[in-house]
Amino acid sequence: MTQGSYGQFCPVAMAAEVLCTRWTVLVLREMFAGSTRFNELRRGLPRMSPALLSQRLKELEAAGVVVRKRGSAAALYEYHLTPSGRELEAIVTGFGVWGQRWIESAPSLENLDVELLMWDMRRNLDVSPMPDRRVTIEFLYSGTAKKLRHWWLVVSPDDGVELCSIDPGHDVDLYVASDLRSMTAIWLGLDTVRAAVGEGRVTLTGARKLASDMQTWLGRSPFAKEKKLVA
After folding, report:
1. Does the reported pTM lie above 0.70?
2. What top-level class would CATH report for the domain 11-102?
């Protein structure tokens, strides 16, 4: 019997021993979102220590959920879900659906994390309403630490969507000024760009078309469509 074992033969208990350690489900969330490299996983889990992330990946590898492979760059390794791991997608999605429906909005909006928010925005951005050229959008978050206040999304027809925390030096097409709580609420589907702009919580300066289309290109959390069943 391993340390932390429930000591039960029940399949629920056996699965929980693999999946219910701290951060494990979130590591899987990031992998289902498309992250395969260690640094990509860290960007989606900014509050998880590198040592603990490494440990969880080794545990998932030992359980046959994840396999480590050499990446396209020889010096880099990538982590991929095995058939066993891919079968967990419904479970991880179910966690998110349940959380969106049944966790109250106020506690959710107390767990603000600008790094995670911007990383989520970057990988869910809908570029279809954007012009066929490089577009740079700068986000300015009031009330956050100075080093986390400015973020840039650079959208390019050739290079896709890049997230920058240091000024990339491009002309900015749209400036988005907001408090972090309002933008997080929009991302979660608890608020809208129109309402936030109308109430002065979000200010859009720059290209009018980009501003008017923001609700479309911003995208939202994959769980935003789920209706809240609690206040």
Report:
1. yes
2. mainly alpha
